[in-house]
Specification:
The complex is a heterodimer of chains A (115) and B (112). Helix content of chain A is 0%, strand content 56%. By secondary structure, chain A is an all-beta fold. In chain A, strands 2, 4, 5, 6, 9, 10 and 11 form a seven-stranded mixed sheet that branches. In chain B, strands 2, 4, 5, 9, 10 and 11 form a six-stranded mixed sheet that branches. A five-stranded antiparallel sheet of chain B has the order 1-3-8-7-6, with no helix packed on it. By secondary structure, chain B is an all-beta fold. The chains are: A mainly beta (115), B mainly beta (112). Chain A binds chain B through residues 4, 31, 33, 40-43, 45, 48, 50, 55-56, 88, 90-92, 94, 96, 100-109, 111, and chain B through 31-32, 34, 41-46, 49, 51, 89, 93, 96-100, 102-105.
């Protein structure tokens, strides 16, 4: 299985809602990432988990809360979001322990709209 | 942090021609550089990785060069096809393991 899956594909939520994005991979990768991508812009890194521990937080607002329950799963919990948080949220994984093999495998993304 | 520039936002070429995309970076030279393809509304797909000690890498119709003196990578698609139409992103590793910096991408359109 060489795929990263993300659910849901689309999500519409109000500013007072709480929702979660889910990401799963079964490639044995031990690094997982959340990115945010706005239209016509490159992906922007939000969080990195390495061996299930948060290793990078790119000063993301606390209304985004990541969680890595195990080596295959990555969640992003959303609460009290703003309309400007509307974007494509991408999950990726890679094998951090393999020298020079740091390509990242991306999921299809969740299109989030905050009303 | 790394600053990455991809020479043009959009490139339009005729089917069968060679598309050449440019990626320039500032600051330190990365150990390697990557190219990704992204289709609208989808996640990027890894294409090629080239290391700093490699001048050129090929994969089928794709060719990547890496010039650490010029701080530049060129990405070529030969015998281009309409199915090659997509946005192509250049990415470089940051100083922290796992951090990738992406360029803004070049949107390639191949017309018949």
């Amino acid at each position: 299985d060489t795929e990263v899956t993300q659910t849901p594909k689309h999500l519409v939520m109000g500013m007072t809602n709480k929702k979660s994005l889910k990401c799963e991979q079964h490639m044995g990768h031990r690094a997982m990432y959340w990115y945010k991508q706005k239209a016509k812009k490159p992906p922007e890194l939000m969080f990195v988990y390495s061996y299930e521990k948060l290793s990078i937080n790119e000063s993301v607002p606390s209304r985004f809360s990541p969680e890595c329950p195990n080596s295959s799963l990555l969640n992003l919990h959303l609460h009290a979001l703003q309309p400007e948080d509307s974007a494509l949220y991408l999950c990726a994984s890679s094998a951090p322990g393999v020298v020079y093999r740091h390509e990242q495998f991306f999921g299809p993304g969740t299109r989030l709209t905050v009303l | 942090s790394q600053k990455i520039e991809q020479n043009s936002e959009a490139l339009n070429i005729q089917e069968g021609k060679t598309a050449t995309l440019t990626c320039n970076y500032t600051n330190y030279s990365p150990a390697y550089l990557q190219w990704y393809r992204q289709d609208p509304g989808r996640g990027p797909v890894f294409l090629l990785l080239i290391r700093e000690n490699e001048k050129e890498k090929r994969k089928e119709r794709l060719k990547v060069t890496f010039d650490t003196t010029l701080k530049q990578s060129l990405f070529h698609i030969t015998a281009s096809q309409p199915a090659d139409s997509a946005t192509y992103l250049c990415a470089l590793r940051g100083s922290t393991l796992g951090r990738l910096y992406f360029g803004r991408g070049t949107q390639l359109t191949v017309w018949p």
